Amino acid sequence: MTGLILENVEKHYGSACAVKDVNLHLPEGKLVCFLGPSGCGKTTLLRMIAGLETLTGGEIRLDGEDIGHIPAHQRNFGMVFQSLALFPHMTVGENIAYPLKLRGVSKADQQARVVELLELIQLQEMIDRPVAKLSGGQRQRVAIARAIASRPKILLLDEPLSALDAKLRESMQVEIRQLQQRLNITTIMVTHDQREAMTMADIVVVLGEHRVQQVGTPIEIYRHPANEFVADFIGSGNIFPATALGNGKVSLPGGDALQVPICSSIVVGEKVKMLIRPEDLQLSQPQATAGNRLLGKVTFVRDIGATIETTVECSGVSFTALSTPCQDVGLSVGNPVSVTLPAEACRVLSA
Amino acid sequence: MSTLIKKRYGLLPGETGKFAGILSGFILLLAVLPILTMIVMSFSGASNLDFPPSSYSLQWYKAAWHTFVSPDASDVLSLGKAMTTSLMVACLTMVFATIVAVPAAYALTRCEFRGKAVALQLMSLPLVFPMVVLGLALLLVFDSLPFQITTSRLVIAHVILALPFVVKNCTAAMLSIGSEVEEAAQMLGASPTRAIIDVVVPLMKSGILAGMLLAFIVSFNEFTVTYFLYTIDVMTVPIWMYSRTVSSLDPTVFSFAVLIVLIDFVLIWALEKLVGEGGVSF
Q1: Half-sphere exposure of A208 (CA within 13 A, CB side)
Q2: Would an 8 Å CB–CB cutoff place B193 in contact with chain A?
Q3: Contact of A36 with A19, CB cutoff 8 Å
Q4: Does the distance separating the beta carbons of B180 and A82 come in below 8 Å?
Q5: How far apart are CA A114 and CA B240, in angstroms?
Q6: Eight-class DSSP state of B184
Q7: Where's the ABC transmembrane type-1 domain (chain B) (predicted)?
Q8: What confidence tens digit (pLDDT) does each residue in B230-264 have?
Q9: How far is it, in rounded angstroms, from Cα A73 to Cα B184?
Q10: Which residues have CB under 8 Å from B190's CB, separation 6+?
Q11: How many beta-carbon pairs under 8 angstroms link A with B?
Q12: Nearest-CA distance from B66 to chain A in Å?
């Protein structure tokens, strides 16, 4: 099987566990994002793939070959570090040429490749500039150019954009993604920023509590979270308890019944967790309850201009609904309100 | 207006009053007093060591120059030879201390090992160890050896004394180098050793140079331990000067001392230029 395969990978530091039971198949040419809160082991996992950490269990295979015993400098993987780790005593050109120099590439070929890469990152005129004299975004690009100079099999990015300000980060996300697609290089990126993951990734691997929680496309992860951890970590969501009544019905803590997609693994009477995204909730002026339309009371309104967040107390649950100014029904705190929870937007989360 | 504010609030943080200025001036004066005395004495026109001298002349510089070029019979050893020994010992000390200190600094910052705290303590032991005891101990060790070493035993002693300074400067330089640059070099294809040579050592450069110069200065000025270890053929400049003072107390010594202080000043100035202010730890 081609691509990078992780099998039962685990890492212990003494008795502390960093990651365990990681089984992944990362196909060729895709951008895979390891997404998770800090301390979930995502960086450790990336460093193990890089060869900078040893595995305490399991196997990492690249195109069928076990690479666990190969030291980092022989793997030919490109890596961009969180601090970028550019060599401050070298110029931009020297930084990019360094991996080529190590591989015994002739001076002329080194020069040609450096020029080619600088054109790619649009920094042609910076070749003799010391790296300390570059802006944050320029350094970022140089770090990427250096990482891909030796045409590595895999590109690893360890939170590469965390040092940039928000605006630059957004544009770099697009830039890196476009570059990755143009070069068609298998890329693994670590991030804790779900927006970044959604923007850039073909496949998102959600990591939490030292294990893989879910693997899927960004939309799958968002629309069909596998469990409460993923539902809670990705986006904002209303997670609420309910009791299964059978026939795709559940009852809320306040007693109201709700029609939801039928989930075969849930038995009648079982307590479950439900998810509905704030943008899926529909608010309207109070009407009689019917179907999935319930009555509630507004407890808080946060109008931040572009969107309006309304918190509604309804059947013993506090829901947050997101609406645009044109959908606004003009509610204020204390008003009664009707809340519609479309059945197809409700998700039953496996416990 | 501004004087009014000053009166009402007194000193602002970061401002110093008159008293602090006077105090620091006084302390500075205390520090340079011996050097000033020495310089004044070296220009003495009298033939005794009275201070202040009754007259001034360049006679001791003339005498010093004379000793340097054509040592008279009463001298056990010429200053030229002592100077050669001093420079050689200082250079060797500088080289060996650096060869030991760079890997040591690397290990002390990068690696976690048992007894690291003890190693750190031991490293700075020569700073607090009584010099006389150290000199005596080394003498006993060297004398018990089945063979005789002369210059090299001075080098060994000086390396021990210089090591804390060199290690300290190299460690300070190491601390500012993140492990990520080293890992980056490895990811780009450099073996761990190559990564150290290509990335870590160049980034440590200022710390290494500072340490080297300090080692040179420590060795060049060292007296107490050397006093136990010198032989009649192999002595350093400070020993030569001392023996000359004991045998014939004349201000020629001060002329030599001025020269040596001048050398030290140039070295320290070079040090500051090299690593910038605050970059050197003594």
Answers
A1: 16
A2: no
A3: no
A4: yes
A5: 60
A6: H
A7: 83-271
A8: 887 888 888 888 887 777 766 777 888 888 888 88
A9: 9
A10: A73, A98, A102, B198, B199
A11: 67
A12: 49
* Complex-level ipTM: 0.84
Contact state of B190 with A73 under an 8 Å Cβ cutoff = yes
Helix-then-strand count for chain A, H and E: 8, 20
Best mutation target among A54, A87, A151, A157 (most B Cβ atoms within 10 Å) is A87
Contact partners, residue A152, CB within 8 Å, separation at least 6: A76, A77, A78, A185
Q: Which residues of A touch B189 (CB under 8 A)?
A: 73-74, 76, 99, 102-103, 150
Distance, in angstroms, between B76 CA and closest chain A CA?
Answer: 51
Q: Closest chain B residue to A83 measured between Cα atoms?
A: B180
Using alpha carbons, list the distances in angstroms from residue A57 to A10, A51, A60, A120, B143: 5, 14, 10, 40, 57
The answer to whether A102 contacts B189, with C-beta atoms less than 8 Å apart, is yes
In chain B, residues with a C-beta closer than 8 Å to the C-beta of A14 are none
pLDDT at B74: 52
Integer-rounded Cα radius of gyration of chain B: 24
Quick one: pLDDT at residue B1? 47
DSSP three-state, residue A325? helix
Residue A301 structure tokens? 């309104």
Identify the structural domains of chain A with CATH numbers, from first to last. 4-230 (3.40.50.300), 236-349 (2.40.50.100)
Summarised one tens digit per residue, pLDDT across range A54-88 is 999 899 999 889 998 899 999 999 999 999 999 99
A12, A62, A84, A222, B188 from A102: Cα distances, Å:
33, 23, 19, 44, 8
